[in-house]
Every structure is written in structure tokens, then in C-alpha cells.
Write the C-alpha cells for this entry.
Amino acid sequence: MKENPFKFGTVVDGEYFTDREDELTKIGSYLKSENHLILISPRRFGKTSLIRKLLNESRRRYVYLDMQLVISEEDFASQLLKRIYRIFPLQKLKGYIKSFRLIPSVILNPVTGEVEITFKPGSKDLAPLEDVLNLIEKLGKESEKIIVVLDEFQDIFRINSGLDRMLRSVIQNHRNINYVFMGSSESMIRDIFEKKDSSFYRFGSLITLGKIPEEKFRLFLEYRFTGFVKEAGPVSEAILNISGSHPYYTQQLAFTVWELLSRSDDVSGIVEAAAYEIVMSHDNDFELLWNTLNRTDMMVLTGMSAGNISPLTDEFSRLYGTGAASTVFSTLQRLVKKGMIIKEGSVYSIDDPFFSRWIQYRRRV
């Protein structure tokens, strides 16, 4: 039995990586230049897998930090410095650390070799972060720039409302670093980098990462299902009809279809059966999520799960009683920020096709 060729839920690379040749070329050229990069995409569209693949192929030193995990200013500095210790020898860093305005506590775990770093918590002092960022600049070279990736960059406002101004004042002077700012909240990231009164206005080149083109995803699926099922085309088509070419959910559904086929030779209805299995495996999660919503959220999501009518139209309002278009618009904006709805151009859709199906299933029971 062949190994399941589909992967989801973690960073995807190697044979599991799908398409994105154009994006790889474009982003790769930016990282070879003097420019900084802003990369926007909804969650689970594969931006982390994409940037990781580029970083690994570049063979350059890099620091990657997910800002969702940062809890304070001093933690920001600690997490960055911890990652610097992973790519530079301890002896090389000692002299630099001694010049810091606040000296961190550095403990080397003799078993794992991992370094634990802490600055004095609760100080609200931005000096450690400034010192660490400037350290990265000193370690880089014009001919060998370090790449610093700050994922979910919009979270800086959660950490400190004035952190954007401090960061800009420091990193605008750096010449030996390529910064990559990534985010899943398009409206917030655009506010940071496109509003004229923002500290980071036009600080880098902005790229929006969309879904993988359906035709390319179909070829990817067909290639992997060929030899495992008699007709890979119809199975691939059925998967994409449900997933809408969403990178994460396409891989998840294809993985589940493969698992079901490995236990049964009956291909008829196999994709629908796999989709139902996924929906039921998340039944409790979806119920908890549903119960966090207000009445208007529920009405909008119910209507969107039932068909392809734009939620901003009068027809949608008549069918589902959502009221004024302004109310629906504010609801959509809120659900986009939550990551439950994605907007592509002027089109809104429910991000998770299995949540959409869960709503339909529950309403039919």
C-alpha cells in the first residue's frame, strides 16, 4: 500500500508542496533585493509553507517568529534573541550581549542544547527589543543579509499600542536585514502598510496570496490519485467542488478520501463520505464555535452556507431576514477579522467548507 501523499495541519514541503511557482519566483526576487516584503493571505492558505520553502532554498540565515505567541515587549526580545542563538555560535554573541542596556538571563539546557532567554518581565522597557534588533543588523552583512520573518504582524498592537512606531524608528536604519511581514488579517495589515498616517506606510512591497488555481490543483490531485483509483479525474473534481481549491481543506479532504479508499474499493460516493467524516469529527468544535456567534452572525452564515447569493443583496435579505445591508456589511467585516469568512475581490465566502456543511447538516436533522 502506497503512503498517503496528502498532508495538512503542519508546514508543507517537498512532494507535498503544491504549485506556487509564480509566487516562489516573485517573492524570491524580493528577498534578493534591498526591499522588504509584506505578505497577506487568509489563515491556512499556505503562506507559512511558502515562506519556509523559500527560506530553506535560499540557504541564508533567517529568524522566523510567530507574533501570535508573543506575550509582551520583553518576550518579543527574548524570542528573537533565542532564535539568534540557534544560528550563531554562543561565543560570537557574548560580546554583543554584554553591551545590552538590560542584560538577559541566558540558560543553556545541556540535554537539548536549547537556550532559554528572559529579560526582566513587566518592565515595559523597549530597550531590550531595540538592542536585539540592532544585534541582528550587526550580525548581518551587505553581501549576506539576514532574513527576519514576523508572522501575524498585526499582533504588535495587542502587545503594545505604540510598538509600531518604535519598530519603524529602529528598523528603518537597518541595511543588513530583509524583513518579511506576514499577516492573515488583510484589513489590519493594509492599515499598517497603506494608510498614510501609519508608521509603516509603504515600508515594503505588498503581495496578496490567493487560492491555488483550480486547474493546477486538479493536476496535483490527479497525479497523486493515478494508480490508486481507476479514474482519478472525477475524484479530484469532486474534491475541489467541495473544498473550493482552499489549500488546507483540499489537502484535508484528499487525505481523508485516500484513507477511506485504502479500506474500500467502492469509489461511488467516496468524496461525500469523506466530507461527512470530517464534519462529524469536528461536530463538538463547530457547535462551540456556533454558540459564540450572535443572531445576525448566525443568519448570515446560514444564508451563505445554503447557496451562492451575495449576502449584501436584497434577495439575500428577503430570504434570510438579515435586515439592512449596512448591518450585514459590518457583520461580514467582523467575521472576516475572526477568520470565519474570507473576501476575495468583492466576493465573500465561508472559509471552512466543512463548517458550512455542518450548518447544512444540522438544519436538516
